[in-house]
């Protein structure tokens, strides 16, 4: 798909989401919901006594998985699967540059994902929630988040580019 068309469609989707739900898109909130549900299953006593989980339960009375962000992310995964199935692109493979191994690729992706998740919690939102949705409503936090994401990527690209080229 043409990236300009994709960007325009994403912007229109953000506007429709804000109009219909009163808030923008997001993904890290769904991950938090899955994490809270997993901790509730494994350590019920801990979630009943820890301040964070008590506050989370107070804010999400229907349970951590009864959140529209959870349904959004599940829909994204199902939609991606259907898209791959229709276009005959379903395959398990690990893409990496010629100067690295699959193991290094998986390790760096896991480390990067963990750091990004930590940053999303500190910034109270991920790329889609804080940056895209924040910029759609012209919030200062959204602008700062987007500048930090791209600034960080450019700053660290020099050090990691040899893994890809």
Please describe what this structure looks like.
By secondary structure, the protein is an all-alpha fold. Helix content is 73%, strand content 0%. The chain has eight helices and no strands. It has helices spanning 3-21, 28-42, 44-49, 51-59, 68-86, 102-122, 127-136, 140-160. Helix 7 (127-136) crosses helix 8 (140-160).
Summary of the model, kept short:
With 165 residues, the protein is mainly α. The protein contains 8 helices and no strands. It has helices at residues 3-21, 28-42, 44-49, 51-59, 68-86, 102-122, 127-136, 140-160.
Please estimate the helix content: over 70%
Please state the CA-atom Rg, rounded to the nearest Å.
18 Å
Shape: globular
Fraction in beta strands: under 5%
Distance between the termini: 25 Å
Total beta-strand segments:
0
Low-confidence stretches: none
Count the DSSP helices: 8
* SSE-based structural type: mainly alpha
**H/E element string?**
HHHHHHHH
Mean pLDDT: 88
What kind of sheet is the major sheet? Answer: none
Relevant terms:
mainly alpha, 165 residues
Topology of helices and strands:
Layout (H helix, E strand, L loop, with lengths): L2 H19 L6 H15 L1 H6 L1 H9 L8 H19 L15 H21 L4 H10 L3 H21 L5
């Amino acid at each position: 798909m043409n990236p300009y068309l994709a960007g325009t469609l994403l912007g229109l989707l953000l506007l429709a989401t804000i109009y219909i739900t009163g808030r923008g898109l997001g993904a890290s909130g769904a991950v938090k919901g899955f994490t809270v549900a997993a901790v509730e299953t494994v350590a019920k006593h801990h979630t009943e006594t820890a301040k964070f989980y008590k506050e989370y339960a107070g804010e999400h009375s229907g349970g951590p998985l009864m959140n529209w962000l959870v349904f959004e992310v599940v829909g994204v995964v199902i939609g991606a699967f259907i898209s791959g199935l229709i276009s005959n692109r379903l395959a398990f493979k690990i893409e990496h540059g010629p100067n690295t191994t699959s193991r290094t690729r998986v390790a760096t992706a896991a480390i990067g994902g963990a750091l990004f998740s930590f940053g999303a919690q500190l910034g109270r939102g991920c790329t889609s929630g804080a940056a895209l949705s924040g910029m759609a409503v012209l919030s200062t936090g959204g602008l700062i988040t987007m500048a930090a994401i791209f600034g960080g990527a450019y700053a660290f690209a020099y050090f990691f580019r040899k893994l890809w080229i």
